[in-house]
Amino acid sequence: MEIARDARIYVAGHRGLVGSAIWRELERRGFTHLIGHTHAEMDLLDGGAVGRFYAREKPEYVVVAAAKVGGIYANSHYPAEFLFQNLQIQGNLIHGAHLAGVKKLLFLGSSCIYPRLAPQPLKEEYLLTGPLEPTNEWYALAKVAGIKLCQACRRQYGSDFISVMPTNLYGPNDNYDLQNSHVLPALIRKFHEAKAGNAPTVTCWGTGSPLREFLYVDDLARACVFLLENYSEEQFINIGSGNEVTVRQLTETVSRVVGFGGSVVWDSTKPDGMPRKYLDSSRLFALGWRPQTDLETGIRLAYEDFLRKFAPR
Ligand SMILES: NC(=O)c1ccc[n+]([C@@H]2O[C@H](COP(=O)([O-])OP(=O)(O)OC[C@H]3O[C@@H](n4cnc5c(N)ncnc54)[C@H](OP(=O)(O)O)[C@@H]3O)[C@@H](O)[C@H]2O)c1
């Protein structure tokens, strides 16, 4: 169902990687009444503040792209914060949306919700069929609870709340902090610094053989707006690119885009991680949606954004 261009749409987390891309896409599509509040303006852990916000600004559509996000290090050092804060943020936003009579809500999960040993490609029905990956189980558990809360609101109250599970994302407004970032932004920074310092080599972890899937965040945003208008099911839905690359191919592409002239050394004493992580996106593709940005183009756009922010001329 097409959303009116003047509908009140609240994007929680609109300054983050995902939220900012969804905001850009909504603007590009001509939506005129977007609502966003920074963390400093409204702490989503504060249920009272969220309730007052809903009563005051009466959003008709809500996108939940706010979350406490981090890598393995942060997850393993702050498990209580990851579990509690994510339960609290999503609980306040989803339950608050029900109380405020929001027409439709889209909740963002993550592919880490799937069991560690689930078969690949990962199909939606593999949820809760086995133990989670222990390095991020706190975060994943909160995300599973968020999916379930959307489903429960649909069953009990008839709320049109949907959930999506994106694959690995990258693009403008990514996090380039080496201790906290995901593999692709970390590689962009590493190769950029090696080039700037005229280093002859870049050392990467493992063997380079694991397979990974990446989606440019503007493609994710297009998928989210498409699903807001065209999907109203209890079943959450995977969002992937449908393309896999080896970590070695990924590093070669980053190296080429950055213009690094040296070579890559593989430190095989370091772990490779999961051999393969690939979402089955056939449910989404069957609705007619396809990504538009190939990996090299996406990395080029992400690197331009990195240069603007971290290495302005
Ligand atoms: N990045 C990926 O590869 C990826 C892949 C799959 C799924 N996702 C999902 O997409 C969602 C967004 O991720 P992201 O990568 O966009 O993360 P992000 O860049 O860290 O953005 C998260 C946003 O939430 C805000 N936030 C966090 N705690 C808050 C609080 N207590 N009150 C108000 N705002 C708060 C943050 O603001 P501050 O920075 O000011 O705290 C930030 O703007 C998450 O649910 C994540 O699981 C991401």
Short description:
The chain has 313 residues and is α/β, with parallel strands linked by helices. Helix content is 42%, strand content 16%.
Overview of this protein structure:
This protein is an alpha/beta fold and 313 residues long. It has a domain at 8-172 and 214-242 and 278-293: 3-Layer(aba) Sandwich (Rossmann fold). It has ten helices and twelve strands. The strands form three sheets. The chain has a six-stranded parallel sheet with strand order 2-1-3-4-5-9, with helices on both faces. Strands 6, 8, 10 and 12 form a four-stranded mixed sheet that branches. Helix 1 packs across helix 7, helix 4 (79-99) runs parallel beside helix 5 (137-157) and helix 6 crosses helix 8 (247-258). The longest helix is centred in the first third of the chain and has 21 residues, at 79-99. The site of NADP nicotinamide-adenine-dinucleotide phosphate has 22 residues, from helix 1 and strand 6. NADP nicotinamide-adenine-dinucleotide phosphate binds next to helix 1 and strand 6.
